[in-house]
Every structure is written in C-alpha cells, then in structure tokens.
Design brief:
alpha+beta, 6-stranded antiparallel beta sheet, 11 helices, globular
C-alpha cells in the first residue's frame, strides 16, 4: 500500500515537473474566434496593421474587433495563459472595450472599460484544474465603432495546450411560452392615438378559440366595431379621450378590457408592432410577397398579439439608371408622380387587402435622390410623394437617409443639417388626410434621440443595421445601449434599435435563406430586451415559414404587455456584476418588470441580492416567459440561466 502511494506521488511529481511548452494564441485556429467586424488576424490588428497598444508594438498576438469571443477546452493540467490587452493604436477614432477571461470556475480576469490610447493591461490566468476557458472582448454603451481589440503577446505556457471549440455555439430550441388559453384574452395596445377627422382602423388583438364575438360600449360617434372580426373602423372622433369597454366572448368564456382612444396630436402612444420585408426579401420584394405577408400576419396568429403593420422596405420603386424590364424605366410620370416597378402593379390593392384584415400598410423611401439600394428617392418631390403615399392608403413611412448626404452637402456646418430633411417631410405628412406613422431611419447620427420627436418622428433608429455577419454582436451592443438613452423614449416617440431577426432570414453570404444566427437563448434575450426598452417590435424574418419556436418567442402576451405598457417608460440597468445584468422598468399599474440577463459565455447560476436592489420586500413575483406565479422574492434568489439567456419577471413591491 505504501509502495503504491509512493509511485502515485512520483507520477504526480513527474507531471508537475514535466517541461512546459509555450504556444502563442496566434498559432491556433482563429476560425473559432468571433469578431464584431472583420476577421480576427494572427500577429496583426484586425485591419492588418502591426499590433500596437499605447505606442508599444508587439510582434505576436491576435487582433479582433469587439464583440469577440473564443472558447477552449482543457484537461486541467498545470499552466498559465498570459497576454497584454488593449485597443489598437491604428483605429481612426477612439473605441471602448472590456476584456474578460472566464473559466468553468467563473470570472478569471476583467480589464474594466479600456479606451484607445490606454496602456496595455497584463493578463495572467492559472489553468490548473480548468476544463473550459473563454476569451472575450465586449463592446460598451457607446457602441462598436473602432473597438479594435488586441490580445498582444497572448500565449499558453503549459503541459497541455487548450484546444479551441465551438460547442457553445450550438443550442437546441426550447419553448418557454405556454399555449394560449381557449378562453378569450385581449392583447396588444390598450391606448391608441389618432388625429381627429381622419380614417380610423384598429384590430382588437385577441387570442382564444374561434369564433369570438366582439362588442363594445362607449365607442365614440363615427366608429363601428365588426362583431365577428374585432375590427374597429370609421372616422377618428373629435379631440378627447374615449375609454371603450370591449368584450370578447366565445363558448369557453369572455374577456372584458378597456381601450382608451386618444384623439389629438400624438400617434404611436405605444411602440408599433408588425413586420418588414427587408431582412428576408431585400430588394427583390414583390406585391405578392406583401400580400402573402398580410395574410400570414392573421393566419399565424401574430395579429392576435398586436402585430399590425405590414411594411414594404426598399426596392418597390424604379431603379436609377437601370434598363432592366422589371425594375428599370422612367423614375416618375410626366406630372412627377413616383412610379412603381413591375413587381408592384397596384399599390392600392395591397393596402386595401391589409386594411380589410384590420392591418396597417407601411412604405419606404429616402430624402435623397436614391434609396440605399439605388432606387428613386424623394428629393425635390417630398410633398408630391407624401400625397401619393396617402392616396395609395399607407399608414407608415420609413424615411431612410441613404444618398441625402451626397446630394445635399453640409458645407456650412449647419447645426440643423441632420434635422432638415425630416422636418420637411413631416410638414407634408401632418397635412395629409390620413395618419401616417413616421420612422426616422438615419442610424443615430447627431444623437437623433435628442430631437427625433421635435421633428415629428414617432420612432428613430438609434444605431446602424442589426443584420449581417455580426447579428448577435449587434443585438447585444444595440440593445443594451438603449438603457443609456432611456429618457428620450416615451408615448408618441420611441427609440428604435432595429428589427427582430428570428426564424428564416436572408443570407448575405449566399443570397439565399438561413436560420437566424441568434441561438434560441439569444432570441429570447432579444425579445425580452426590446420589450424592456419599449422598442418597436417589427419582425423581419420570413413570416410565411414561422415554426413553433419562432412563434413561441414572438407570441407571449405577458411579455408583449411590458413593451405595450401605457406608461411608456424605457427600462434600464440597475446592476452589472461581471456580465450578469439586472434591468428594471416601471409599469402603469405600479408594478415593475425586472429582467436578469446572462451575457457570459457559459450557463450560469445567478444569485441576485434583491434587497440591495430595492426588491427585498416583494411579495408577488411572476415569471412572464413561463407565465407562472413564483411566490415571494425568495423564490428567485438563485436563478439558472443559460449562456446569453435571460429571465423576466413582473414584481409587485
């Protein structure tokens, strides 16, 4: 027995004393490393220049762009990972990045927020007993621009070199939202803003076994409710507030709820909900695609949860300088009226179809001479185009900056330069005989959230496009950024972080279709975050191929109610502990929506100090995704949250 222990001791000693090897991170397979922009590069910055941090040049290392992540497996043997981290000097402007190293034991290193020009910070992680290792460079609240993240002189000195892995990239879909009850439930917006004397259309979003019979009391003069469809139509009443009691009943029971119609100067008193064609059809969208989408909005049940806008994006006009027989030709008629290409033979027929279903129709153009796709824009025809859109019957306009910056130069450094094209279109929209919701799409330039409402916008894009090769990184950086501008969003004007890209979406690499790059947990996180920040919920995947999982994410009445809450406050972060974030949002009934996000690269057991966050005396907690009551706050003191997943609660203090 003693001899066995002796030989075991020798074996352990031999392993511990075995000669260690040094392997640079740049010698490993970097295809396993993600990058928020560009491609990670060995022994150079992400732009191909020498690695340089605060004036010091490094021969070895890896250059990437936040958000960036690389995972490894390890056998637990002795060794170390070391590096010098910082932002690359060669960026043309200042970026901000946080560097992290996680292991299966938890957080091993955190740099704090670093900026371009800051001295490099050393990393030294003991690998003994480590089975998994994660290197991360994350964006901060100011977005992704110039976040050139360097892992300089990064190396493993150990007996057994950790091996890159992608096992955390793949996650099977799982369902959180329970099936809707057979008894009626009225969903979606509970307050609706209109302008007096204009066409009125509102579909009472209702789940439950069909047929459902609808009735209403307190409906103002000029409006009628279709008892079979739940569609309210007519002419908007005189200025004032009109509480309407709506009853939805079927053979299983009934639901009574109140819709407050506010007739005045404000539209979009809750964030708009619907579908947009861009991220599935791009420039190839057709009228048939749009009509199919309108029908699918109803047949899939999306309309029963409040989704109502069916919006055409770029590509419906004539393409500039094109001789293609389908999309080419004169841009406008002799009288200046903008012309549709052959893919849209009858715009009025499309809007009529949408309206017959109780839905709204949206359109797209640019203040420049051409759209982003090179199709005819509205420059010098703004009033005429606005009138045409109204004649066609549209209810929503996305106004995309595109070529305007080339067409109209800001040579005099006019402080109102970014506002002027949006002010101009707004004056024509407001003079129209119908309400048109106005979306300012100019990617957050000049802090549009500070003045978007002043120029007449009902929503404004706060960052660049969410889609493309960095969808997950964009979702995190754009979504979590919104908490920093929460005070600029509310009833009548909403911060817009772009679309919900779930299900089947356009593949920019192949030109075909692919499944969303977001994992199931990331999709639940995206939907949760968008609802917490009161963002417009505009889905832009393939609405005709929705599967059970995608509908599960899009169609949770209690989660959507947080987004559509009449108080209209945006949520914000109240705790950030090593990439575990807790957000809160006040609700109109005095309760709070509270979400816990796991931004770490692994599943996490999260212990929340609710007392410290002001929720120590909460007696009622409801899990909104699972739609179950949890009891008091003690029931959620320890949470199991998957990688990049979340939990969402409603709490009564």
């Amino acid at each position: 027995m003693k001899r066995s222990i002796f030989y075991l001791g020798l074996a352990v000693l031999a392993t511990a004393c075995a000669p260690k090897q040094t392997v640079y991170l740049s010698d490993l397979d970097l295809s396993y490393m993600t990058s928020g922009w560009g491609t990670p590069k060995a022994d150079s910055s992400v732009t191909g220049t020498p690695l340089s941090i605060a004036g010091t040049v490094y021969e070895r290392g890896v250059g990437s762009h936040a958000s960036s992540e690389m995972a490894f497996t390890h056998d637990g043997s002795a060794g170390r990972f070391t590096a010098m981290v910082g932002l690359d000097d060669n960026a043309t402007d200042t970026g901000t990045v946080e560097f992290y190293v996680f292991t299966d034991k938890g957080l091993a290193f955190s740099s704090g927020v670093m900026r371009t020009g800051d001295p490099a910070i050393p990393v030294d992680v003991n690998l003994r007993g480590v089975q998994e290792l994660f290197l991360m460079a994350t964006t901060t609240a100011d977005g992704q621009a110039y976040d050139h993240a360097n892992w300089a002189d990064a190396q493993f000195t150990c007996n057994s070199v950790p091996q890159p892995t992608d096992r955390y990239i793949h996650e099977e879909p799982y369902l959180l939202t329970p099936p809707a009850a057979a008894t009626p439930r009225i969903n979606g917006a509970k307050v609706y803003g209109v302008t007096p004397g204009k066409p009125f259309l509102f579909r009472v979003a209702t789940t439950g076994e069909r047929p459902i019979n609808f009735s209403a009391t307190g409906l103002p003069e000029g409006l009628v409710l279709d008892a079979e469809t739940g569609i309210i139509s007519g002419t908007s009443p005189a200025r004032g507030e009109y509480p309407v009691a709506i009853t939805a009943s079927n053979s299983k029971g009934e639901c009574i709820d109140t819709l407050k119609i506010v007739s005045g100067d404000k539209l979009a008193l809750t964030p708009h909900m619907g579908w947009n064609s861009w991220y599935i059809h791009l420039l190839g969208v057709t009228q048939k695609d749009m009509e199919d989408a309108a029908r699918a909005m109803v047949s899939t049940g999306l309309a029963d949860y409040g989704y109502c806008f069916v919006n055409i994006d770029d590509g419906w006009m004539i393409k500039v300088n094109s001789d293609d027989p389908v999309i080419g030709g004169p841009l406008r008629a002799k009288d200046g009226t903008i012309l549709c290409n052959e893919n849209f033979p009858d715009m009025k027929a499309f809007t009529d179809l949408a309206h017959s279903l109780g839905l709204k129709a949206g359109l797209y153009t640019s203040p420049g001479s051409a759209t982003c796709g090179g199709y005819a824009g509205a420059l010098n025809h703004e009033e005429q185009d606005a009138k045409t859109f109204a004649e066609w019957g549209f209810d929503f306009l996305k106004y995309d900056w595109c070529s305007y910056g080339w067409d109209v130069k800001n040579d005099s450094n006019d402080p109102d330069y970014f506002r002027k094209p949006y002010i101009k279109m707004n004056q024509y929209l407001r003079a129209l005989p119908r309400d048109i919701v106005y979306n300012l799409c100019q990617y957050g330039m000049d802090n549009v959230w500070e003045w978007g409402a002043e120029v007449g916008g009902q929503s404004w894009r706060t960052r660049g496009d969410i889609g493309g090769p960095s969808l997950v990184d964009n979702m995190f950086s754009m979504g979590f950024f919104q908490g920093t501008i929460k005070d600029y969003s509310g009833p009548g004007g909403w911060n817009d972080p772009d679309y919900l890209l779930f299900g089947d979406i356009y593949d920019f690499e192949t030109g075909g279709t692919k499944r969303s790059d977001m994992s199931p947990s990331e999709q639940y996180t995206c939907m949760t975050l968008w609802c917490m920040i009161s963002a417009p919920l505009i889905f832009s995947g393939d609405i005709t191929t929705l599967d059970e999982f995608t509908l599960n994410v899009l169609c949770n009445a209690e989660v959507i109610a947080v987004d559509q809450d009449p108080l209209g406050k945006s949520g914000y972060c109240i705790s950030d502990e090593s990439m575990i974030e807790v957000w809160e949002k006040p609700l109109a009934d005095g309760s709070w929506a509270v979400s816990v996000f796991n931004r770490r690269p692994t599943d996490a057991t999260v212990e929340v100090d609710w007392k410290k966050l002001g929720y120590g005396q909460v007696k009622q907690v409801r899990d909104l995704w699972r739609q179950v009551d949890m009891g008091d706050i003690g029931a959620v003191s320890e949470l199991e949250i998957p990688r990049h997943g979340c939990m969402m609660f409603k709490m009564v203090k």
